[in-house]
Design a protein that fits this description.
Elements lengths: L1 H17 L18 E9 L2 E10 L2 E7 L4 H4 E13 L2 E23 L7 E25 L2 E20 L2 E5 L2 E5 L2 E21 L6 E12 L3 E12 L3 E13 L6 E16 L1
Antiparallel strand pairs: 1-4, 1-14, 2-3, 2-14, 3-5, 4-5, 5-6, 6-7, 7-10, 8-9, 10-11, 11-12, 12-13, 13-14
Protein name: Outer membrane protein beta-barrel domain-containing protein
Organism: Caballeronia terrestris
Keywords: Signal
Length: 275
């Protein structure tokens, strides 16, 4: 920067010393830096939530399916918010979700030793609540006449709490009578996954008002694999955007992790306010 200023000053001095003011070049103008742009997006996502949980018991484990939850019937509380800050080609973004579901009927399969030596199945109930926090950064890698693409990377955190309840059960089989004790257990798991992916938009009209947003990422960490995809239809206005989209988010665990699989997929509507 200093060399550019010094070089410009020397050139101006040389012209000023040998020419009239009319022939002098205009003063050196530095390009203005691009300002920061910010966006806040409150949204409503109505996903179908399903998967399988593995609870640790004193004498083994219990596997239970969870969901698919009826969103309007089982949902107790939800909060969702996205935010972004952009400067030129660079951006940082965040996404926060909290969901709490009531009880859901399930089939429980127990495995273990002692009184649980023989695998058994019975009916029970699960409840689920969790919070998702996603933070990332991106850089625009392509600007086409009607499309732009950002390469992104970041960290996704999922904190899940689940509970399992089943009454005592007695049965008579080939090996004689057996007793399956009552189950009342609650567990929590914190999942940290890194991810990479792409996001952007494709304009459907020349003025760019109607467009198709898209998002895709894949990652790993605490989860064996996690991935997310989103697309829909958006409309841009002076104050911001409105979107209708479909979003799918999945986590796949392993071993004795509480979350064996967890899938959230469904429609979403959002309004983005830019300033």
């Amino acid at each position: 920067m200093f060399r550019r200023l010094l070089g410009g000053a020397l050139v101006c001095a040389a012209f000023a010393g040998s020419s009239s003011w009319a022939a002098a070049p205009p003063p050196l103008v530095m390009p203005a830096e691009e300002p920061w742009q910010f966006a806040v997006t409150p949204y409503l996502w109505l996903p179908s939530v399903s998967g399988s949980l593995r609870f640790s018991l004193p004498s083994g484990v219990a596997d239970a399916s969870t969901g698919p939850y009826n969103y309007l019937q089982n949902l107790k509380f939800a909060a969702m918010l996205q935010g972004e800050a952009r400067k030129g080609d660079w951006s940082v973004f965040g996404d926060a979700i909290y969901l709490k579901f009531g009880r859901h009927s399930t089939t429980i399969t127990t495995h273990g030793s002692g009184t649980l030596a023989i695998d058994s199945q019975r009916d029970g109930e699960t409840s689920l609540k969790g919070g998702l926090l996603q933070l990332g950064g991106g850089r625009t890698v392509a600007r086409l006449p009607r499309a732009s693409i950002d390469a992104i990377a970041g960290l996704r955190y999922l904190g899940v709490s689940g509970s399992l309840d089943a009454s005592m059960q007695t049965s008579v089989g080939l090996h004689g009578p057996s007793v399956s004790p009552a189950i009342h257990v609650s567990q929590r798991q914190d999942i940290f996954d890194g991810f990479v992916g792409v996001r952007g938009r494709v304009s459907l009209t020349e003025d760019g008002r109607w467009y198709v947003p898209f998002y895709l990422d894949v990652g790993t960490g605490t989860s064996k694999v996690t991935w997310q995809v989103m697309t829909g239809l958006g409309y841009a206005m002076k104050w911001g955007d409105v979107n209708a989209s479909y979003r799918y988010l999945a986590f796949h665990g392993s071993g004795d992790q509480l979350v064996q699989t967890l899938r959230l997929n469904g429609p979403a509507i959002s309004a983005t306010f830019r300033f």
